[in-house]
Amino acid sequence: MSQLAATQKTATSEALEAARQNPEASLATGRGSAVGAILLNGAVGGAKLAAGLLGHSYALVADAAESFTDVISSSISFFGLSVAAAPADHLHPAGHGRAETLASAAVALGLMAVGGLIFWHAALSLAVPRPAPDPRTLLVLVPVILAKEWMFHRLRARGKAIGSVAIVTEAWHQRSDVVTSIAALAGILIAWIGGPRWVYADSWAAMVASVWLVGVGLWLLNPPLHELMEGSVDPALMDFLRQTSRACPGIRGVEKIWVRKLGMRLMVDLHIEVDPRISVQEGHRLAHEVKSKIKAELPQVLDVMVHVEPFDFDRPHAPTP
C-alpha cells in the first residue's frame, strides 16, 4: 500500500470513529481544549512580548502579537463550541452545530489578517534604526517552540477524534506560532552572528513567517467552507451507513444517501428500497428500524430522514454484501 493510500485510509476511518463518539462528551472535550489553548497562548504571548521589548527583537514582538491573536482565536473557538452545545429550538430545529463551523472560518480569516499585519509592520520596521536583538531572547523562544508543538499535536489528535473542525483549526494555529517562533529564532541568530549589517534580519524573518501565516489561513478556510456548502462527507462513513441500512431484515437496497455535517453532528437523508407488496405500515416500521439502528451505531447522528421506495425486481442489482 502506498503512503497516499495509507493516509486516505486513516482519514476515512477518523470520520467514522468521530461519529461514534458521545456528542455531549465530544463538545465538552472541545471546549476544554479551547480553554487550555487560551491559557497557554496568553502565557506564551506575555513571555514573548517582554523578551522582545527588552531584547530589541522586532520578530519576537511580532511573534508575541501572533500569540495574543491566538488567544482571541481560541476564545472564538470556545464561543462557537459553546453555542453549538445549545439544544435545538423553534428557530433552529436542527440545533446550533454550524456555530462551530462559522467559528472555524472566523479563526482562519483572522490568521490571514494577522499575517498581513505582521508583514506590513515588519516592512515598515526596515526603515527604523534600532540596536541588534539580544541573543538572550533565545532562552524564551526554545521552550515556547517545544510547548506550542506539543499543544499542536495534542489539539489535532483531539479534534480528529471528536470530528471537530474548530479544534483542528485551533491546532494549526498552534503550529503557526511554532513557525513564527522558529522564524524569529533564525532572525535573531543571523542578526547576532552577522553583526550590524544584519540587524534587520529578524524583520525579514517576520515577513517570511507572515506569508506562511496567510497561506495556512487560506488552507484552513477550506474545511469550514466545505461544510457550509454541504459538501460530500467521508466515503467510509457513507459506506457504513449503506451497509448498516441494508443489514436490517426487509431492506432490499439503498438507493440514495445524503449526509450533512453540522459541526460535529450529522444529519442523514437516505432512500431505502423495500418489497412493493408489503403494507404501508410495514414500510413505516422498516424505516423506523433503519433510523434507530443508525442512531444507535453513530451517536453523533442528530436525525435520520428515511424515504421508502419500491424495490424493482426487474432492475439488475449488485449482490448484498
Structure description:
By secondary structure, this protein is mainly alpha-helical. The protein folds into two domains: 9-228, Cation efflux protein transmembrane domain (Alpha-lytic protease prodomain-like); 235-310, Cation efflux protein, cytoplasmic domain (Alpha-Beta Plaits). The chain has helices spanning 3-19, 23-55, 58-84, 98-125, 138-162, 165-194, 201-228, 235-246, 280-297, and strands spanning 253-262, 265-274, 301-310. Helix 1 crosses helix 8, helix 2 (23-55) packs antiparallel against helix 5 and helix 6 (165-194) packs antiparallel against helix 7. The longest helix is centred in the first third of the chain and has 33 residues, at 23-55. 42% of the residues are buried.
Quick summary:
The protein is mainly α and 321 residues long. It has nine helices and three strands. Helix 1 crosses helix 8, helix 2 runs antiparallel to helix 5 and helix 4 (98-125) packs parallel to helix 6 (165-194).
Counting copies of identical and different chains, the oligomeric state is single chain
Poorly predicted spans:
1-12
- CATH top level of the largest domain is Mainly Alpha
Gyration radius (Cα, Å) is 25 Å
Helical/strand content category = mainly alpha
Total number of distinct structural domains: 2
Give me the strand/helix succession.
HHHHHHHHEEHE
Annotated CATH topology of the largest domain = Alpha-lytic protease prodomain-like
Tell the overall outline: elongated
Strand content: 5-15%
Mean pLDDT: 83
CATH architecture of the largest domain: Up-down Bundle
